Amino acid sequence: MRVILLVDRDFTHRELRLVRKVAIGLVDAGWRTIVALPEDSLPRFDDVPGVQVIGYRDRGVPWTRNLRAREIADQFSVSADDPSVVHAFGSKAFGIATDVAKLLNAALVLEVHARSVVQRAVAVLNDEAGEGLAIAPCTTLVNALIAAGVPHASAREIPWGVTSRDVTLERENTEVLGIVLSGTGSDPQLWEAAIRGLALVASRREDFVILADDAAILRSGMDRLINSIGLSPLLSRIPRLEADRELVLRADIMLWPDHDGEHRSIVLDAMAWGVAVIATEDRDVPSLCDPSIAQLVSGDSAEWAGAIEALLADETKRREMGKHAHESIAQNHRPSKHIAGLIDAYEWMLGKDAIALPKDDA
């Protein structure tokens, strides 16, 4: 059986690490796996034995979408003996993935990773008259899909899997601690509170550096504030922080001011590596509504400052929070469980009587 993981530009930028792990797991399970990325993103995907990587044109006027989908589909044969699944990651890939699935007579699966994606997924599934499947990484998003009109049978929860490092490994002891500042950047008010909290801490101690996600800083519009409150000497803006996240995994603390109901695997990765996380609460993201694995704040700058300073000052508390987070992620976000859930969903879709496979025209 064959699966095409069709990834949009935004998801490629942030989550290529996750897509690569999914592809490797599917290949190991015996699936012929193709990863389709925007054509200019191909150099970013390292060679993986058994995984075929293809580029596609993700940009163009609407009336060219079917043509661009056909360019993908024409690279594969269609056979009743070799059924296919098209799994779309990122809402901007939903449309072209739908067209590719129709051209290949394949089952359609949509990854719904954020509250903002729900209505788009519902619209696509409604157009497909219930022939597609939506999967989401948490129960709240599955419930949102069902509440919006997706049949119960067409929505599944499959939590993402990430790799945990050995909990026995000790984090490096350095005189200067590392704080990562990242998030969606979609809520300037929450970002301002976090940055002002950092400035309050910096006025009392300077034994830390801040590694900030450049894209999130730009989107939140915090450039002027960072300069005006004197935080610039401690803050380095890092391009592609989510894509190249090795710095994050070696940090001591991660700050995540806003979420917008969106799952991002960088948070799971940080927790899996024992990074202490301070964040505003988000009920759509289970890892960020559990006070035992993350320090949750309401959004007030003084509260941010207190939470940050407490973790900077108390190494034992910092390590204990990281350990609890690591244990939770290791239990609830195993890559093997993620892959098993996907395979079960794919096989269920291919076994549905409603999936029409082509007849031999010969």
Structural overview:
- The chain has helices at residues 9-28, 65-73, 94-103, 118-127, 139-147, 188-202, 214-220, 223-228, 246-249, 265-272, 301-313, 315-332, 335-350, and strands at 2-7, 32-38, 51-56, 84-89, 107-111, 132-136, 155-157, 177-181, 208-213, 235-238, 253-256, 276-280, 295-297.
- The radius of gyration is 22 Å and the shape is elongated.
- It has 13 helices and 13 strands.
- Mean pLDDT is 91; it is low at 353-362.
- With 362 residues, the protein is α/β, with parallel strands linked by helices.
Order of helices and strands: EHEEHEHEHEHEEHEHHEHEHEEHHH
Instruction: Please work out how many helical segments DSSP would assign.
Output: 13
Q: Could you tell me the mean pLDDT?
A: 91
Low-confidence stretches: 353-362
Strand content: 15-25%
What is the helical fraction, as a range of percent? Answer: 40-55%
Give a count of the beta strands, DSSP E runs of length 2 or more.
13
- Major pleated sheet: 7 strands, parallel
The computed structural class is alpha/beta
Envelope shape: elongated
Order of strands, widest sheet: 3-2-1-4-5-6-7
The quaternary organization reads as: single chain
Cα end-to-end separation: 22 Å
Radius of gyration: 22 Å
